[in-house]
Design goal:
Layout (H helix, E strand, L loop, with lengths): L3 H23 L5 E7 L18 H8 L2 E7 L5 H10 L3 H4 L15 H7 L3 E6 L20 E4 L13 H9 L4 H5 L16 H13 L7 E6 L11 H4 L15 H5 L42 H28 L6 E7 L19 H4 L3 E4 L8 E8 L3 H8 L14 H6 L10 E6 L12 E6 L3 E7 L3 E6 L17 H16 L13
Parallel strand pairs: 1-5, 1-6, 2-8, 3-4, 3-5
Antiparallel strand pairs: 2-7, 6-7, 9-10, 10-11, 11-12
Helix pairs in contact: 8-11
């Protein structure tokens, strides 16, 4: 005879156990997340990275309250492929997004989808760029965002029907778009006033999202367009920076001849020029179009630098406004903040501007700061080699979500909390360009790969018969290419072996093994 009392007791225990587990999920201590992702910003723009010229007190304060990574590299110096790394934990060759107009594979979920499925309320403000943004809007992928305040860029070409920032200007700020953006007509110029700037809008929308009534944690991606070209800060910010007081780009006269080797490489600036040109701005009339993607043939590097630094100061002010608001509402201590950029900007270094198939430090070496008070060690600078692809598993780890085996990045979370072996992470980092640019001056297929082992940077332009090697310990400015110097042939062979291994490791995680036959 069945003992129903016994089995009823077991059922009650199981229900209680499950209820306790569910309560653990509801009453968890998982953090909120803020990913603050600037666009086209290299590492050397903050005091924490050695630059005292830019006013960046908010980011510098965040660095003191968290952990700074000094050797953080993107695996793509182009927007969409780099952002795909952050949101999938996979290199572009695996997730399919290897160019600005190629979407992430439809069967791949972003980390925001994992967070949503785990109970997070996810929001996006600004640029997503996991697919083509032609026509001013992009087709959504499996992104997991419930709130979607979309603005691909801050240039005049977009309209309120497809751009939430422009809708805000028209409907909430009651401004005439054509009149407001009329001065934004060059690659380097005064932009709209701060009150109406996209960077201001980003923080306003962030505060709006944070104030939503919800149960459970939230995650917010804030993706302003600055300091991406055109270099168009508000006038009052631009006037703070006198070009004559700035150092200007990394440049030597032999750069002009040296860069001719790369004329047929896919990039936005095809010819290196002396960045101290006397006529820094092209004429306002005469067919100069698309200043966000087509750089001028001549420019003054110090003038560009002044505009660029002004844009960064504006970003810093409104990032600081967001941090202060979190503190006011007692949300700062339970929010994990990640400040970083998708890739850098040449900004006149070696006579080049904008981006393309090049791997100079200004393009691939970007800032990264983590802060979570009471959890992540504070006021620590790590020299570990880290890649953008490492952020996805780190975020899932912090949220207590199992990291999928096929993610190719490596979590930093336990190291940041313990402070142990924080200067060790990877032996080598990888970057790639595979016909990735949608708006090059030279329209030709270009496939190039870069590896960096902490000292030597090795670059191969596949099918073109040449490459570059730089010893960053002795030559941090990357002026002396060792590729064709015969005395380094044994070093070159060794570096090429490790380069091939590292590049092959980006291809796939393979099939998860369940056992042996």
């Amino acid at each position: 005879m069945i003992n129903f009392t016994k089995y009823f007791g077991i059922l009650v225990l199981l229900l209680v156990s499950n209820e306790e587990k569910n309560n653990d999920v509801i009453a968890d201590d998982r953090p909120n997340f803020i990913f603050y992702l600037s666009d086209d910003q290299d590492q050397l723009d903050y005091k924490i990275y050695g630059n005292d010229l830019v006013e960046s007190s908010a980011v510098d304060k965040l660095a003191k309250q968290g952990m700074v990574f000094d050797n953080f590299y993107t695996a793509q110096a182009i927007c969409s492929p780099s952002r795909s790394q952050l949101l999938t934990g996979m290199y572009p060759v695996k997730n399919g997004c290897y160019a600005n107009h190629i979407p992430v594979k439809s069967n791949i979920s972003s980390i925001t989808k994992y967070l949503k499925d785990a109970g997070y309320d996810c929001g996006l403000i600004g640029k997503l760029h996991l697919a083509s943004a032609e026509g001013g809007v992009e087709k959504r992928t499996n992104d997991g965002y419930d709130t979607f305040y979309y603005s691909h860029d801050s240039t005049p070409k977009l309209n309120p029907e497809t751009d939430d920032y422009k809708r805000w200007i028209v409907e909430e700020k009651k401004q005439d778009l054509k009149k407001l953006f009329e001065p934004v007509n060059n690659f380097c110029c005064d932009g709209v006033p701060e009150e109406f700037h996209q960077t201001t809008w980003c923080t306003d929308m962030a505060i709006r999202f944070i104030n939503k009534k919800r149960e459970g944690p939230w995650m917010l991606s804030i993706n302003p367009f600055d300091p991406h070209p055109p270099f168009d800060p508000p006038k009052e910010y631009r006037e703070k920076y006198n070009p004559n007081d700035l150092p200007g780009p990394l440049f030597e006269l032999n750069d002009i001849e040296r860069q001719r080797k790369f004329r047929e490489v896919c990039q936005q600036a095809t010819e290196a020029v002396n960045p101290s040109g006397e006529n820094p701005l092209p004429p306002k009339e005469g067919g100069y179009k698309n200043p966000g993607n087509w750089p001028p043939e001549t420019f003054n590097g110090k003038v560009v630098q002044a505009h660029y630094y002004a844009m960064i100061e504006l970003l810093d002010k409104h990032f600081g406004r967001l941090i202060n608001y979190l503190k006011e509402i007692n949300q700062l201590d339970n929010t994990l903040i990640i400040f970083h950029s998708d890739h850098g900007e040449m900004l006149g270094d070696h006579g080049l501007i904008y981006k393309g198939s090049r791997f100079f430090e200004g393009l691939v070496h970007v800032p990264l700061i983590f802060s979570w008070p009471g959890k992540i060690k504070k006021d620590v600078v790590s020299s570990a080699l880290v890649e953008l692809v490492d952020l996805a598993p780190t975020i899932l780890d912090a949220a207590g979500i199992k990291i999928p085996y096929y993610m190719q990045g490596k979590s930093l979370f336990s190291k940041m909390c313990s402070g142990e072996e924080i200067n060790k992470h990877k032996n080598i980092v990888v970057a790639e360009f595979n016909d990735s640019l949608g708006s090059p001056r030279i329209v030709r297929d270009t496939h190039a790969t870069m590896t960096f082992d902490g000292r030597y940077k090795t670059i191969i332009y596949h099918g073109l018969g040449f490459g570059e090697i730089y010893d960053l310990e002795k030559d941090p400015g990357e002026f002396h290419d060792l590729w064709d110097k015969g005395i380094y042939d044994s070093l070159k062979l060794k570096l090429m072996h490790s380069h091939i291994d590292a590049v092959m490791n980006t291809s796939s995680a393979g099939v998860q093994r369940k056992g042996r036959f």
